[in-house]
Amino acid sequence: MAVAVACGAAAVFGAVACQPVEGDLNPSTVSATTDQQGTAELNRQHAQVAWLSCSGAYVNRTTGSGATTQEVHVDCRGETKEGKAVTLSGDVYGVVSGKCVRGSLTAKVDGKVWFHLGVLGNCAAPDTTTPPPPSQGGTPTTTPQPQQPGETQTVTETVTVRAPSSTCTTFQGK
After folding, report:
1. Cα separations (Å) of 168 from 39, 117, 164, 165, 171?
2. 137-142: long-range contacts (C-beta < 8 A, 24 or more apart)?
3. Which of 9, 25, 108, 119 is 20 to 30 A from 90, alpha carbon to alpha carbon?
């Protein structure tokens, strides 16, 4: 919930504090990377994703030795181009922003398991944001600039749980 508050405050003041940050295990980074890599993997496996939207929240896990680790539970919902429901969810313990997430992730299409992976994406993929070094002597080379990704929208949802009222008030109809 602290992340939702921080994101809400950032939105009010126009800051970009909730944008994914390289190497930082936070719900925003995990959600955005899972969305990108999950869509790519589902499409690679011919699911034909029309849209996918992911959210994430911190969870604490206690290991067998009694140590506590922090992970991010990610939950994605979407649809194929044929209108079938798509879900992708699991717990993530590592992320390389824009490249991969590590954890336990399961994707389902129309209620059937499509894949279950420990790594989603390619953690060893080259960094496309850093330009290559200049050529040494000889003929100058020209490297085309990679296309910049489109705008990514991260959705943060704050849920308030309230106990049911012990009394009900009904309004009289006409």
Report:
1. 45, 47, 9, 7, 10
2. none
3. 9
Helices 27-44 and 2-13, packing angle to 10 deg:
90
- Compute the distance between CA of residue 66 and CA of residue 61 in angstroms, rounded to an integer: 9
Q: What are the b/e assignments for 74-108, b being 16+ CB within 10 Å?
A: bbbebebeeebebbbbbbbeebbbbbbbbbebebb
Q: Are 113 and 42 contacting, i.e. CB atoms less than 8 angstroms apart? A: no
> What is the separation of C-alpha 147 from the centre of its chain, rounded to a whole number of angstroms?
21
pTM over 0.70: no
CA distance 88 to 132: 35
Contacts of 109 (CB under 8 A, 6+ apart): 42, 47, 80, 84, 85, 86
Other C-beta atoms lying within 10 Å of the C-beta of residue 28: 23
Interatomic CA distance for residues 49 and 109, integer angstroms: 10
User: Residue for token digits 């000889």?
Assistant: 138
